[in-house]
Sequence to fold (500 residues):
Amino acid sequence: MRAALYLRISKDKTGEAEGVERQAEDCRALIDAKGWTLVETFTDNDTSATSGRRRPGFEALMAAVDRRAVDVIVPWNADRLYRTPADRLRVVEACRQNGVSLHPVRGTGIDMTTPNGRMVAGMLGEMAWAEVENKSERQRRANRQAAEKGKPWLTGPRPFGYDRTSGTLVEHPTEGELVRQAFSLITSGASLKSVTRMLNEAGAHTSLGNEWRHNNVRVMLLNPLYAGLRAYAEMPPLGSKETARSRPPAEERQLVPGRWKGLVPEDVWRASVAILRDPSRATNVGNFSAVRHLGSNLFRCGRCADMAAAEKRSGEPVMGVNYTNPRRSGERGHRIYKCKRCHMSRRADPVDAFVSTVIAARLDRDDVADLVPTNRISSTEVAALTHEAEELRGRISVLPDMLADGDMTRDQFTRANRRALDRLTEVEAALTRAGGSHVLAGMGGPGTGERWLTSEDLGWRRAVLAALAEVVLHPVSTGRPKKGEGINPDSISFRWRGDS
Ligand SMILES: [Zn+2]
Fold:
């Protein structure tokens, strides 16, 4: 193990300065006793960690951790290394991400070499986050007040599709239409690649003047700004470099109505988000575990559905995907859908084949559009839902102030907040379902089924499936299926969205 020694010399009244040599000796003794190799010593001289002044030694140490040049940091005690919550968070997160342990001479550290140690590191990380978040509560509040007023961001690059005029956003004369086209393409099954091509062929550039790339397009389509909504921005925790990764995506944060006009309705934006955020979508950045399954997190469990119906409650867990263990060496395990609650499972390949055939046949009919309930949700109803979402967001945003001003008790706040959030979740789900009609726009008729079957865009295939029907998998008797045995059609039910 490559060890780095960290020393901080502070000339405070306790006479620590004299103790530094002794500290260094203690650290070296520990490194020797463990059989580690001392590769570098980082020292900060006469600087207080709490003053916020730069500590070159600390920064150099963090850089060494980030490039994984060390395996273990040895300070005399952890307080030498960090005195502010932000520093602690930085150290804990850097250690966790790079698998670097922290082993102070005195006190507890972080052991990244054992599963238990890593678990403790995770908990320390959570605590460090909480600590920092409390600290930055004041900034977040200030930021939320700005967001409540729905002001657009006035710093950073101009959002594509808009001009920034007198403190707000105004549709750009040519780009606005391109944005609408981009949304319409993605909801009708086009790949990000073809949307990117469309933008580049139209001669459009990002607002930074660059050629469009998939990821820019994806980021754009996920932005609530285009639905006239502003995400309440969490302040990045102080001193953290890992903000983007640890913050929830914009569309999952609290949304407030913006003071500008959206380029697309909220339900269209939600439909795009549903497609782009689909866990199975191969193009999802950083989603290495993305496997291509038609029904994971989509198909529902029939056994749990029956139980729920008997107990007159809602809630049917979705089916995840697992692989069975190979029975003998050399035999490959097969894919199964498995209920996340009751663990009922079905072999996935025959289920997918059967469901695909049924869906494709349905898509070939001319009346696909009639099957979608959103066609029965009139545009006035969508408008009413949108309006209700706006009101709820407004209400949610004033609650903290009422609590702070003593207009309500903590209990009242919690209840009111919960109620409003629950309803908002329902309304947003209804809007996402309404957005499903956009996914099916222009579909139906001979050839549609084939197009759906052969599409390589699994995210879109799943969005179409979800817009058309809810698929419920019922338990079948265990035991190995006989060769050539087909699937029992009764063991899979389709709840077509149009049937009410
Ligand atoms: Zn179940």
